[in-house]
Sequence to fold (313 residues):
Amino acid sequence: MICRQVNPLIRLIPPSLVRLFARPYVAGDSLASAVGTVAQLWRERSLMATLDLLAEDIHQESQAQQNLAAYLAMVDAVAAMQEVPAAARPTLSLKPSSYTTRPLQAGGDAAGSFAAMQQIVEYAAKQQVAVSIDMEGRHWTDFTLDALKQFHAQGHRHVGAVLQTRLNRTSQDLDALPKGMRCRLVIGIYKEPESVALLGKPQMKERLLEYAERLLRRGHYVEFASHDEAYVRRFVEQVAPRAGVGPDQYEVQMLYGVPRDKLLGELHKRGIRARLYVPFALSWGMAIQYLRRRLDEYPAMMLLVTKNLILRR
Fold:
């Protein structure tokens, strides 16, 4: 296996400082902590959630098995949540790279990944828990879309997709989505070359609006994921009405820890559903690895995190 090395400068950041930056965006170092967080979000603010285990870039088969077991436990935990209505239960986000030591971006064959996701998807179906297959870097796109089509062909309508507007191929990938599949639209955080992706954030965000309207017109349930308040408002005030759909056909999503309380409150008053993407880890060591990789892929994140920490004070 070829391991991608994190920028040495990122490695020099002390773990204690990385943990300080990670804490507002990570719901603890256990499943119990994460479940408690999403229950509180619903109880106090009527916010739905998506649970995501921080477990990418693994190197040992035992880690793949640990991740699989953790997701099966997540299904049980979500199914057992009594205080959250069934329609507002947390969904689970699955990253294909979490279940293989042979990742595609390193020239591997993703051995074990589909089988693990199949097991989780089937178990989640029995427990009536929705899952989404997250979209990672460009090397995973075909694999992920093929997996989605197979799950849909098997009748697993509880499985949703995630598409990144920065990739130029996404326009065609929209057309290939199974009819009616739930779809989360993001600009994406993975660095991609100009030969396959946009490099400018404004263009990526304009595509969010364009692609969201296309999906709504085709009968998809759209999960519009953005922290840009102007684009969120354009989506709910212009795009959705123009597509002829009501709030039952879409929701707005944001990352846990990003301070957008005023906007989320406005959405709630208008009857528009909002969901927070809630990452957690099985140890703070995994959470720190996660943020180091994100800082390496997107150095400007350090400035954004610092700004958000200041705003939270």
